[in-house]
Amino acid sequence: MLHTNLSVNEKGHLTLAGVDTVEMAEKYSTPLYLVDEERVREKMRTYIGAMNKYFPEGSMPLFASKALCMKKIYKIAADEGMGIDLVSPGELYTAKVAGFPLERAYFHGNNKTDADIKLAIDSGLGYFVADNREELDAIDRIAHEAGIKQKILLRLTPGIDPHTHAAITTGKVDSKFGTAIETGQAFELVKYILTLENIELEGFHCHIGSQCFEIKPFCDAADIMIMFMAKIKDRLGKLTTTLNLGGGFGVRYTEADPHIDIDENIKLIAKHINDTCSRFEFEKPRILMEPGRSIVADAGVTLYSVGSVKTITGYKSYVSIDGGMTDNPRYALYQSAYTVLNASRADQKPDFTATVGGRCCESGDLIQEDVEIKKPERGEKLAVLVTGAYNYAMASNYNRLPRPAMVMIKDGVDTLAVRRETYEDLVRNDMD
Ligand code: LLP
User: Fold this and answer.
1) Does residue 224 share a domain with residue 189?
2) Euclidean distance between CA atoms 140 and 86, whole angstroms
3) Which of 64, 137, 298, 423 could form a disulfide with 85 if both were Cys (CB 3.0 to 4.6 A apart)?
4) Domain assignment present for 72
């Protein structure tokens, strides 16, 4: 199957981490997010192991929690010794109430408010990844009020195009994120930071984009960043010691996508960085990376119940499911490819071409078009694979649909990680 945690049991049902997905759908109802906890932990260990092995001391992966944010994931990250990347006060709050040690947290975002900055400083945040001058002034002022010197990384745009979907490219010069090296503005901003008394500039951050299968863009970005760090040292006398390369390793959504060997990629990037540092006679910085998708995507499967199976004679067929763009907006937003199968008859050959439609009152509410599946009947369970990243995290209540539950599987045991929203949850904030 597409990933090693997927299989088919004697009933012909799809299994995830050895657990019957159809039984899970019946037990917890649908739509349902299922997550293989062991797979998440394995991925975290792979990143930690490789980064410890190939990069200088202090290097560490930060889980990009925008890919999957709920209390349990922060507990797992804390347990495994990961750092985290946060992008909003809501993520920060979730990590805090989950008991994550916030000194290992890095707070991103291109527009942090004063209230966000204060909340983070009061919560004992380790680092801000600062984006712009206005924000630097605010951090400096709020750190002064709190009587601390705040550690930061500065986000830069190295001007790399990683050849991924335009909406998930972020390292190009005209990006809304960070400050451009190419225009000279980054150098000027560093000069300014060095005048701020309550900020300690420890290093720099860049993120080129997401779902990247090649390592060249990471190596190119690292070169530009290291050259910049060397220039800051030579011209401004400031040695910065941390380089954060962001996230972005791709994952295999369908058979057409390649497998990625995380350990091997990190090894090659490390070798490249070591060569560049020697070339510029620059002390090797500690390296941070921010994997999100590649940690959680293939741990997840979404299960739906089939409603109607409709064939428009001479045109196409639709299979309607009890979820849709509200629990997985990625096809509607990016035409993202997914593998879909009839989980109730996963042992049978596909015999039907269908477009899988959600239940929203919107014709673009599709999960996938023209997939080959075993023709389902009403009530059978449909599985969409590799949904662990950017599904629950991007879910909405459009059409007043409650968000699904999430169940984690570990050692063959299923545990509710997020309960299903109720109709009462939906009206909780409405005034009479
Ligand atoms: N670090 C930064 C600064 C980022 O902007 C991102 C993703 C990551 C790390 C994690 O990247 P990953 O390892 O997950 O590729 N909603 C889109 C993805 C947007 C990603 C934005 N930034 C999707 O569903 O594909």
Assistant:
1) yes
2) 20
3) 64
4) no
* Span from the CA of 166 to the centroid of ligand 1 (angstroms): 12
- Give me the long-range contacts of 8-12 (CB less than 8 A, separation at least 24): 8/346, 8/347, 12/344, 12/345, 12/346, 12/347, 12/348
**Number of domains present in the structure of the chain:** 2
Q: Which of 268, 291, 314 is the last residue of a domain?
A: 291
Q: Catalytic: 219?
A: no
Q: How confident is the model at residue 160 (pLDDT cuts 50, 70, 90)?
A: confident
Q: Which of 86, 88, 111, 290 to mutate to test the pocket of ligand 1 (most atoms within 8 A of CB)?
A: 290
Q: State if residue 391 touches ligand 1 by the CB under 6 angstroms criterion.
A: no
Indicate whether 120 pLDDT > 70: yes
Residue 155 Cβ inside 6 Å of ligand 1? The answer reads no
Asked whether residue 262 falls in the same domain as residue 226, the answer is yes
Which pLDDT score, from 0 to 100, does residue 173 have?
Answer: 79
Cα 380–chain centre separation = 30
394 CA closest ligand 1 atom index:
16
Query: What is the crossing angle of helices 133-146 and 114-122, to 10°?
Result: 40
> Residue 171: which domain range?
108-291
> Residue 171 pLDDT > 70, yes or no?
no
Give pLDDT, residue 169.
58
In this predicted structure, what is the pLDDT of residue 240? 98
Atom in ligand 1 nearest the alpha carbon of residue 212: 15
